[in-house]
Amino acid sequence: AVTSAEDLSAGAGGLPPTDGLRYTLDGARVVVRPSGTEPKLKCYLEVVVPVADRGALDAARERAAELLAAIKRDLSAAAGI
User: Fold this and answer.
1) Which residues contact 61 (CB under 8 A, 6 or more apart)?
2) Alpha-carbon distance 75 to 22, whole Å?
3) What's this model's pTM, rounded to 2 decimal places?
4) Segment 15-68, tens digit of pLDDT
5) Domain map of the chain by residue range?
6) From residue 20, how far is each of 3, 10, 56, 59, 66 by CA, in Å?
């Protein structure tokens, strides 16, 4: 579920203004913006899974991949692709 939505047109977090939106989810972020050279949208996805120690790294990577795949599926369905 989306926990916050932010219009980046005024700049955010010390970054310059950009034509885009940032959505924060539980443990993830999605930035959506138009391409500067083509008639399409670009989506940047980030997933963060905490890792307690090196022994948990493989499991964290697997969990991150699962979360990323779920976000991709949801975005594709929302965009109708």
Assistant:
1) 49
2) 14
3) 0.81
4) 899 999 999 998 999 999 999 899 988 999 999 999 989 999 999 999 999 999
5) 2-79
6) 17, 10, 35, 33, 25
